[in-house]
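User: Could you check the structure of this?
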Amino acid sequence: MKLLSAHIQNYRVHRDCSVDLDSSLSLLHGPNESGKSTLAEAIHSALFLKAKGSTSFHTKMQSDFGGDPEVRVEFNAGGRHHTLTKRFGSKGNTTLESEGQATLNGDAAEDALARLLGVEGTVSGGGIEGKMQKRWAHLWVWQGQSNESPVASIEESHDQLREKLQAQSGQTLASSQQDAAVIRNLQDLVDATLLGSGKAKKGSDLARAETELNEAQAALAEKETILADLNKAADDYERASADQIRYRESLADGQARLKTITEDLATVRKHREALKEKSRERETIGKQLEELRKADGAIRELETDLKAAQKAAAPGDEALQKMEANLKDDKAARDQAIEAREAASQALARCRTAHDALQAQVKALETEVTIAKLQKEVARITKLQTEAKALRKQLAPLDGFTEKAIKALRKKSTAASEAQARLDAFALQLDVLESDQAIRLDGTDLKAGESKTAEAAFETARKKHQTAKDKARDLATKLNYAIETNGDTEARAKTINKIKGQHDQALAAEKSETDALKKLGADQLELDEERLNKSVDRDKQNLDHAKERLVIAETELKSNGSTDPERERKELQAAVEQIQRRHDALRHQAEVRLHLLNRLKEARKATTSALARPLEV
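Assistant: Sure, the predicted structure tokens are below.
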């Protein structure tokens, strides 16, 4: 075979690349990562990889330019010119145009290409990368592996190399065709029995033995499960029967004890009802006794307050009577003072009139004197002297009414008017203006110019005394009402003693009921009742559960349909052991074949190593 040219599209870093190969030597050069190794990989893939596929090898071909990777290779082989075109991917296709022959497509093209290249079909399926590295490994050197020995990779080309070396040397090599046939037969036997992972191949005797063994083991396990279930059902039946008896006895005992406690609690309820009634009666009597004692205390307090009020009001009566007598004397003195003031006022009015008339006359006379003086000095004087003498005689009664006396009289008149006004307004204060007799007020002598309140003191004392009398009267009224309502001291004492006796009896009755409840242990009885009720309910539930378990166990024992499950289990166990022995024999046979095959391959590999040693130079 001789490669002539290659054209690559959308293959990794190559978008569109064409190369022509020289018939003797072609040298590719360029910077790193420029696609030199990729070009060689593309030609190798076109020759040996199946175009249609979605393996990891196909995925790595994809480029960033889009479109499916495509490689076209021209070469000479078998005396003809060939053009191979492969478009890779899940919808890939292969086209082979051979000189003088019809164009082939798809699998037909792949098969014809494999025959031209002398290989066992195109590479596909699992482990594709390892398979591709072994294809023409004696002629193809991958990047990064140029310094490695090709011995480990030329297994696929072993026979071809051996035949070529034999043809060239004319000698028979250690590995004969019979050896190869034995290896192939062993490989066929191993492949028919085992997969690459060492598992039994589907459809092989070993696989059928494994299936039969698994089915027998499953049947045995099922039978053992059934037997275990039956044994468990039998045990459950026995335990359920025993539990049923135990729970029934416990339930009967609990119900009996509960009946006794229920009867005692009925007695407790009666005592509690009686205790409530006695407590209500005791509280009612206690309230009545408390009210009586409060009423008695209030009456005693009213009696004390009344005595105090009467005692406080008694001196007031005597003082008020004395003040009333003094007030009468003071009123008489006041009446005398009023009469004296009126007489003085009338005299003052007369003096004032006479004084005014005299002044007017004096003034007139003075005027006449002045005129007469102007006319006749001498005549006037004489006349005036005569008239003066006459006037002195007329004014003799008024010699004491001087200007000073008139002013004093006016002052007293004013004071009298003010005193009268105060007296008229309050009738409380008495003023002594002028008197030639002794005036007594409240047992005290009053002199001229003195004043004293009389009726005001009397009125204040009277009001204070009246307040005390009103208080005493109110207290007496309250006391009389309280006595009428609650009785006198003796009656109240009898009633209080009677109610107190009833209260003591009620206390004793209440204590009697309380003691009876304590003796019965009411609180503990209620706790015991609650505990026993829970215990009885629990026993009922357990009894029902035991009955259910008993029914389930009986059903399980009756529904199996086997008369002797233990015998059937032993028979299945024997069958499993027999199948196991046959399976082990088949497994041993397959492993022996695989071991022999590996030994033969190792021997052939040693031969291959010797054959490939010239390639390492």
